[in-house]
Amino acid sequence: MGRLYIVGIGPGSRDLRTLRAQWVLERSRVIIGYNTYLGLITDVLGGKEVIGAGMGEELFRAGVAIRRALETRDDVALVSGGDPQVFGMAGLVLDLIARRGLELDVEVVPGVTAALAAAARLGSPLSLDFAVISLSDRLIPAGEILHRVARAAEADFVLALYNPINRDLLVEAMGVISRYRRGDTPVGIVRNAYRDGEWVVITTLSSWGEYVDEVDMSTTIIVGNSSTYRYGKYMITPRGYERKYGLWLR
Ligand code: SAH
Asked: Is the pLDDT reported for residue 55 higher than 90?
């Protein structure tokens, strides 16, 4: 039986892959993943058995990965964009293994998730408590998503919104957030972070709608909390030192 690696490849560019991810990808004989992600790791695919699949075929990919790992002595890598736990394949695969009562050696290899990649492009918006929320209502009902958005907004978490694929739900979510945050709260929109076609803008909660057409499947939206501010091209959430040291920071 081979070992099954569930590998986060980071947001896209090769230099944001971890050394562990690179090592695992190089030694695995079988590599399975969503076609877009395979396109980001062509440098390690040579001479391998490569199994691609389209979007929404997650169950298929998970099933194939488990089967291949059980039937071969080789190492098998199932790749996920960003980090494999964050709305990725790790939870699905481990859950399937547990439900089927299988014995399989699995290693989850962490990666730089989209929230961190997008945030780095914006400056440092995630420097206080933050919540990562997926706006995909493919598996979770919209009402439940909006409830979480509201509670996180109320609790003043900085918000990192993934999967803004349902335009109406995105507009509704931003409306819910606006009930708890000022209109001039900074909003960062990052598309294709660390990939070709990267695009970044900092706007506000009252004006973000001007950019709604720029938002696609590869976009992460970061909404600041009550202390987040903008300085030029940076979105900054201060750590809170000013509360303790006050004017000394000047
Ligand atoms: N496991 C991935 C997330 C999968 S959900 C991770 O940890 O990053 C897919 C969502 O992630 C997209 O809809 C988008 O919101 C976000 N995303 C993934 N890659 C991105 C990138 N390079 N730039 C901006 N957002 C990205």
From this structure: no
107 and 119 belong to one structural domain: no
Q: What are phi and psi of 179, to 5 degrees?
A: -70, -20
State mean pLDDT over 117-134. Answer: 98
> From the CA of 242, how far away is ligand 1's center (Å)?
33
| 110 CB within 6 A, ligand 1 | no
- Ligand 1 centroid from CA 175, angstroms: 22
Give the mean pLDDT of 174-197.
98
pLDDT at residue 241 in the model: 78
- For residue 179, give its domain range: 115-236
Q: What are phi and psi of 103, to 5 degrees?
A: -105, 110
Question: Is a pLDDT exceeding 70 seen at residue 123?
Answer: yes
- pLDDT (0 to 100) of residue 196: 95
The domain that contains 181 carries what CATH number?
A: 3.30.950.10
Q: Is the CB of 162 under 6 A from ligand 1?
A: yes
- Å from CA of 193 to ligand 1 middle: 9
| Amino acid identity at 225 | N
Question: Residue 101 burial by CB count (10 A; 0-12/13-18/19+): exposed, middle or buried?
Answer: exposed
